[in-house]
Automatic annotation (TrEMBL):
This is Histidinol-phosphatase. The gene is hisN. The lineage of its organism: Bacteria, Pseudomonadati, Planctomycetota, Planctomycetia, Planctomycetia incertae sedis. PANTHER family: INOSITOL MONOPHOSPHATASE (PTHR20854), INOSITOL-1-MONOPHOSPHATASE-RELATED (PTHR20854:SF4). It comes from Rohdeia mirabilis. The keyword Metal-binding applies. It is an enzyme of class 3 (hydrolase).
Length: 264
């Protein structure tokens, strides 16, 4: 790895500033909600924000790949983007359902991959003016202040977060339910905001399945830069090509017991 990730973070924070301004402008002016072919919602806020991010990367880092949720197919697809050594990965609005409902847990996700591995991440919540960022070797900060995930090895005392049971594939639901039976409480809803809460000491665990690369690329550095771990359901590091299962632990010592419960 030869790129200076501190400088890459400067670019990422510039991207986050531009994204936040775009999101707030569209919220002030009003926006429309449509449905994609798969039934999931999309708004003109999503599309406008991704265009701004893509345009800015093209100016600041013209040799890098770019992969975003909304325009990947039209602009060469994931294979073309991931053919680059360095690839920016965007989810312009993670939590579009929350955005459409007026609930400020939606975020903009900005990730950077090196050789397919997440090495930098930004989670930005525009309405609440909250931002988390980290990179390999650069600990996680929230609005400029260092944050740390909580330390606890008590699974029975843990708070587990997940976006919703309806998003868990049938073949993983029974395993997830085994984990639910062992923790103190479950926080449903929140999308990527759950991982930011974990990095700030609020949650002990986040477990999900069916996530795409643009959903988790930015999350890994933020969780791990706060002292946690973020892996797939087998315990393997998350990267391009991962199967979409995500396990985030505030205290890495919880990872073994959690993975045992999630095992087939």
């Amino acid at each position: 790895m030869t790129r200076d990730l501190e400088r890459a973070l400067d670019v990422a924070l510039e991207l986050a500033d531009a994204a936040r301004a775009t999101v707030l402008a569209h919220l002030a002016d009003g926006f429309s909600v449509e449905r994609k072919a798969d039934g999931s919602p999309v708004t003109d806020v999503d599309r406008a924000t991704e265009r701004v991010l893509r345009d800015l990367v093209a100016r600041r880092c013209p040799g890098d790949g770019v992969l975003g949720e909304e325009f990947a197919d039209e602009l060469g697809g994931a294979d073309a983007a991931l053919a680059h050594e360095w690839t920016w990965v965007f989810d312009p609005i993670d939590g579009t359902r929350a955005l459409a409902a007026g609930i400020p847990t939606f975020t903009t996700l900005i990730g950077l991959l090196h050789g397919g591995r997440p090495v930098l991440g930004v989670i930005d919540q525009a309405v609440c003016a909250q931002r988390w960022w980290a990179a390999a070797g650069v600990p996680t900060r929230r609005n400029g202040e260092p944050v740390r995930a909580r330390t606890s090895t008590s699974l029975a005392g843990s708070i587990l977060g997940s976006t919703g049971p309806q998003f868990l594939p049938d073949d993983r639901r029974a395993r997830f339910d085994r984990l639910v039976a062992e923790v103190r409480d479950v926080q449903w809803g929140g999308d990527a905001y759950l991982y930011a809460a974990l990095a700030s000491g609020g949650l002990d665990l986040v477990v999900e399945a069916g996530l795409a690369l643009h959903d988790f690329a930015a999350l890994v550095p933020v969780v791990e830069g706060a002292g946690g771990r973020c892996v797939d359901w087998s315990g393997a590091p998350l990267r391009a090509g991962s199967d979409g299962g995500v396990v985030a632990c505030a205290d890495p010592r919880l990872l073994g017991p959690v993975l045992e419960l999630l095992r087939e």
